[in-house]
Specification:
The structure is a homodimer of 354-residue chains.
Chain A (H helix, E strand, L loop, with lengths): L8 E2 L24 E8 L2 E2 L3 E4 L3 E3 L5 H4 L2 E3 L2 E5 L5 E4 L1 H14 L7 H14 L11 E10 L12 E10 L7 E5 L17 H16 L4 E3 L16 E6 L2 E4 L10 H12 L4 E3 L4 H9 L3 E8 L3 E10 L2 E4 L7 H13 L10 E3 L1
Pfam families (chains A, B): Aminotran_4
Organism (chains A, B): Mariniflexile ostreae
Enzyme class (chains A, B): transferase
Chain lengths: 354, 354
């Protein structure tokens, strides 16, 4: 199934949009590079991927993506160093997680080569689209969706795998205030919360809107049975620092196995930061805030990188986090972005040159 | 917002596919009528709906439907009686539920007129597509999805509402054997299980495939906290008859408020069938099967109508249901389809003439 592919077919765009892009004022995921990788599943197998001009997709109205939410995605970033080298961060982990998500959604798994060789070829073709300025990067969005037709509620017989890229600035702006959710839930035990499945995100929009109306930007999800334990924030995993210990919830079938989360845990060890991976109760966090032992909270994810949380809300009360001179968040963010952008050694072997 | 619309613009298809369709051998949702209703949300409002030729949809690769599963749908049927009159069954209930689903998914709600007048106009244009043979009908699929662009995980700014139709035969074929699920779950407390959201369906495909490999066609979902209580079957609500009492689970934020389910409860009352709407434990059903008091189980839904269950599996054991001469399922199916197809009086006022 996974025969090595040496050459990816490239169909070049006739004109480039790049001169119309203001690289000094990039928002997140709103402008798209000239090309995309396109790979089609039909007749029971993934066909060879191709680099093609970024172009609209045409589908039948009965295409299952419109009806049954059969889709998964990934998010990673490409960075360019001062010598114009292009770097990826743990891309094989994204590939593996994409297939884990696909399996749970009954989507056929991709051969590793199609993903890795396809991605690298795409980045070489669109290398001029990778921003170099601090805090910017080329956001990479691999996604797979059901393109096959029919109203029967069952897996499609055709799929599309696409990698599209968008030169992007930061995901959040301003101070991040989050609400610990006590009514709505993100995922069920035995559900698809661990997968990057499209439907997991749409289900968060309404509760997040309600939180936004109260002055928060994001929701911290809790378990759906008791709402007593902190899970994740949808676009990022959550870390809490109580005294000098950094704590994050264990992954489960409800919580995404974040690559940034995993990397932070490893970096923290080498920095001699005491780390605990265990259940975190809402009560514990509120108590720690009240007695002054809650030092930091931050979110961690590819889009969010490490985003410090300035305050959290719980049961109609807001709790401010202190502003630290030497925060774990700032240190860990510097360590991880230095590795990602080739500004430091990479003792973990995470960086991949394109 | 909901100004009455007297005339829906109609763009007729230049040719009809109808002569290529074998109306005597219809499967479910595989061939589509000549036209569809199309209505676009942009600039902050739903634009006027139009009847247009059934045609492909063209979207940007960053369209949010591909990434975040922001979609909802409905299912209903049109029937033609011997006098060529066209009938719908409680279509306002489908409209209301579509908007309930939309709200939970942060999709803008539709004006009632756009749905109802649009649907009726579409059916008049494609009236020849409505099958007349016993057990066949025109399956109607209203759906709304996020067509707006961008990789930010937030609601789209543009949507499409489409009604497509498919002359269809029965949803299930053969004896229906179901598995009571003990590992996977369909929905969370505080989640989107009550909505007809696309993502709810994709999440069921993999556990259903596992059940199919064991010889079952469908999964009966249980609560995600304990797996002790029966919820629904994804494509249908579940009814259990113990002795002479018909029992179904109450609706909740995890269970779809099925229109067929609701109708059956009302018909059963007029037939003097004792009905209980309460939690049903798996243990109770297994016990009732063992001691001979479990008389019937059936699924109820628009696509499934009333589908008798021949056997259920639980913890590696199969339990056969008896074959009854005078089953509630057969009686209730006759009553509801007679109303739907104008073969009987309609004391409930459910039937709507197009």
């Amino acid at each position: 199934m996974s025969a090595a592919i040496n050459n990816i077919e490239i169909q070049k765009a006739k004109t480039s949009k790049i001169s119309s892009i203001d690289f000094d004022n990039l928002s997140f995921g709103k402008v798209f590079s000239d090309h995309m990788l396109l790979c089609v599943y039909k007749d029971g197998m993934w066909q060879l991927p191709k680099v093609v001009p970024y172009q609209p997709i045409t589908l039948d109205p009965s295409s299952k993506i419109f009806h049954y939410g059969q889709s998964v995605f990934e998010g990673l970033k490409a960075y360019k160093d001062t010598d114009e080298n292009i770097w990826l961060f743990r891309p094989e982990d994204n590939f593996r997680r994409l297939n884990i998500s696909s399996k749970r959604l009954s989507i056929p798994e991709l051969p590793e080569d199609y993903f890795m060789a396809g991605l690298k070829t795409l980045l070489q073709v669109d290398r001029d689209w990778i921003p170099k300025s601090e805090g910017s990067s080329l956001y990479i969005r691999p996604f797979v969706f059901a393109s096959g037709n029919g109203f029967h509620a069952s897996p499609a017989d055709e799929y599309m795998f696409i990698i599209a890229t968008a030169p992007s600035g930061s995901y959040f702006s301003g101070k991040l205030k989050v609400l610990i959710e006590q009514t709505y839930s993100r995922s069920a035990n035995g559900g698809v919360g661990f997968a990057k499945a499209g439907g997991n995100y749409a289900g968060q929009f309404y509760p997040t809107q309600l939180a936004v109306e109260k002055g928060y930007q994001q929701v911290i999800w809790t378990d759906d049975t008791t709402h007593e334990y902190i899970e994740e924030a949808g676009a990022m995993n959550i870390f809490v620092r109580i005294n000098d210990t950094l704590i994050t919830a264990p992954i489960s079938d409800r919580i995404l196995d974040g690559i940034t989360r995993r990397s932070i845990l490893e970096i923290a060890k080498t920095e001699n930061i005491p780390v605990e991976v265990r259940k975190i109760s809402v009560k514990e966090v509120v108590e720690a805030s009240k007695n002054g032992t809650l030092k930091e909270m931050f979110g961690a994810g590819t889009a969010a990188v490490i985003s410090p949380i300035a305050a959290f809300g719980h049961e109609d009360k807001d709790y401010d986090l202190p502003t630290l001179e030497n925060s774990y968040g700032a240190l860990l963010k510097k360590r991880i972005t230095d590795i990602q952008t080739n500004k430091s050694e990479d003792p973990f072997g995470w960086r991949v040159k394109v």
